[in-house]
Design brief:
The chain is mainly alpha-helical and 329 residues long. It is built from 13 helices and 5 strands. The structure holds adenosine-5'-tetraphosphate.
Length: 329
């Protein structure tokens, strides 16, 4: 029995990297008699500019996607981060234990701020501390995440250990849970960087809502190399990435994929990949549409989740306030 927790930003329509990196691994752990927390980190999303109307839609869309992916609100607390104010309160306290140098070393911060000059917000810099608060509030044991978030979970562990050493045992030390294949789905148009929903070009990602024509266009344009074989080898970034996507959506192994396409070229491989992706996406999209139709139900599920989460988080905050000496008795 463990506490399992993951979260996703409503910063755009979720992509297959988010699905296979975080949502599917979470859903697989959901049935093991664990206590499950899945939330929509809207306060993380505003670390970069968001249009308020679009943000509201993205929050509902994220909730509908989780339900469509198999998240069961009877087994999982599904809620919006902004509805539980303890997340930001704990983040402030943890800020006072976190070193500037630790945040400066975060590779996601470096990637997201490249060429941005002075317009980078303090919120984006501080993002990993809010994420540490998200995790530590709920005595989390396991955090299913994509490879890109491993460094942030490790920082949460370091902060928890520091807090426990200074103020006494308060936080559980969490562990990242990273799948072997598909932990880092790369961008279709640049396989040296990860697929990202807020990328400047929509050729970067395969959205969970892409229709057949869009999938076809994106896969046909996806970067490969001059070799022309369907063989997964280190250094063949574009081809290996497409083969990984094939593996994820079809459930086949790399060896099976290599055998099926031996002696065949990119045109045939890409055509088959397009079909596999569409077969995977269409039923999921149908379920997302069905869920979105019942707007009221989505809001009720999020609200019920928030109320339960608030009660758990407030208990932990009382312990924290007492430990650091701000609670008077
Ligand atoms: N390319 C990826 N491959 C595998 N897993 C991925 N994840 C993200 N990209 C990939 C995992 O999805 C979960 C949710 O991520 P997030 O929404 O909190 O933010 P992120 O990691 O910054 O993801 P994006 O898509 O790149 O969002 P933007 O563009 O808004 O920053 C995490 O578990 C993450 O590891």
């Amino acid at each position: 029995m463990a506490n399992i927790l993951t979260a996703l930003q409503p910063s755009g329509v979720l992509h297959i990297g988010n699905y296979f990196g975080a949502i599917e691994p979470f859903v697989k752990l959901q049935d093991d008699g664990n206590t499950n927390f899945l939330f929509i980190v809207d306060y993380h999303a505003i670390t970069v500019p968001q249009d308020p109307k679009q943000l509201r839609q993205n929050i509902l869309f994220a909730a509908a996607t989780y339900l469509a992916a198999g998240v069961d609100p009877n087994k999982t607390l599904l809620f919006q981060q902004s509805r539980v104010s303890a997340h930001t309160e704990l983040a402030w306290i943890l800020n006072c234990l976190t070193h500037m140098g630790e945040l400066e070393r975060m590779t996601q911060f470096k990637d997201k701020t490249r060429n941005k000059g002075e317009s980078v917000t303090v919120g984006l810099f501080d993002y990993p501390v809010l994420m540490a608060a998200d995790i530590l509030l709920y005595d989390t044991n396991i955090v299913p995440v994509g490879e890109d978030q491993k460094q942030h979970v490790e920082l949460a562990r370091d902060i928890a250990e520091r807090f426990n050493n200074r103020f006494g045992e308060t936080f559980v030390i969490p562990k990242p849970h990273i799948r072997k294949e598909g932990a880092r789905v790369m961008a279709l148009d640049d396989p040296t960087s990860k697929m990202s929903k807020s990328a400047a070009s929509d050729k970067n990602f395969l959205s969970l809502m892409d229709d057949e024509k869009t999938v076809e266009k994106k896969i046909k344009a996806a970067m490969t190399d001059a070799e022309g074989t369907i063989v997964n080898r280190p250094g063949r970034l574009g081809v290996s990435n497409l083969m990984t996507i094939y593996e994820l959506v079809s459930g086949k192994t790399m060896a099976q994929i290599e055998a099926a396409f031996e002696g065949k070229g990119y045109a045939q491989f890409k055509q088959d990949l397009i079909e596999q992706i569409n077969q995977f996406l269409q039923p999921l999209q149908q379920r997302i549409h069905d869920s979105l139709k019942d707007h009221k139900n989505l809001i009720e599920i999020l609200e019920a989740g928030a109320q339960k989460a608030q009660a758990i988080a407030e208990k932990k905050m009382q312990q924290v306030r007492e430990a650091i000496g701000v609670k008077l008795s």
